[in-house]
C-alpha cells in the first residue's frame, strides 16, 4: 500500500501553484473572445501563456514543496476546462475536426469520473501520466498551429497522433487506477 500512501499530499488550498492553475481556467475567456473576433495573434499569445502556466504550476508546487490534493485535482481540471472550451470554440469556426473534439471530451469526461471513483476508494488522486502530458502537449501545439493557419495535412497528422496518445494515456491511467484500488483492497 506504499504507492497509495505516497500519492497522498497536503490539504493546502491557497498555494501559488494552485492560483496559477485557477488563472489558466480564466484564460479560456479571453482566448475564446479573441478567437471569435478572428484575432488569431492574440488567441495564439494567450494559448502560449496558458501552456506556460501549465508547465509552471507543477514546477512551482514541486520546488516549493506545496503539492496538495487540491492542486493534483485542479491542474488537470484546469487543463480540461481550458482545452475543452477552446476546442468547442474552434470546432465552431472549422479549425478543429469534430471527431477529435468528441474523442478528447469523451476521454476527459470518462477520466474525470474514474478519478472521482479512485479518489473515493484510495483517498488520493493519482497524478496524470507522461502519455497524457504528451497528448495534451501535442494537442496544444496542434491547436496553436491551427490558429496560425498551418496546412491541413500537418494538422491532420497532429490530430491523429494526439488521438492515439489520448487513447494510450487513458488505458495506462485505467490500469494504474485499478492496480491502486487493488492495493487498498488487499
Question: Can you walk through the features of this model?
Answer:
This protein has 186 residues and is mostly helical. It has helices spanning 2-7, 16-36, 40-63, 69-92, 98-122, 130-147, 152-185. Helix 2 packs antiparallel against helix 3, helix 2 packs parallel to helix 4 (69-92) and helix 6 runs antiparallel to helix 7. The termini are close together.
Output the structural class: mainly alpha
State the end-to-end distance: 9 Å
Number of helices: 7
Computed over alpha carbons, the radius of gyration is 17 Å
Largest sheet: none
Residues in helices, as a percent range: over 70%
N-to-C SSE series?
HHHHHHH
Give a quick set of tags describing it.
186 residues; single chain; mainly alpha
What is the fold's blueprint, element by element?
Layout (H helix, E strand, L loop, with lengths): L1 H6 L8 H21 L3 H24 L5 H24 L5 H25 L7 H18 L4 H34 L1
What's the short version?
This protein is mainly α and 186 residues long. Helices cover 82% and strands 0% of the residues.
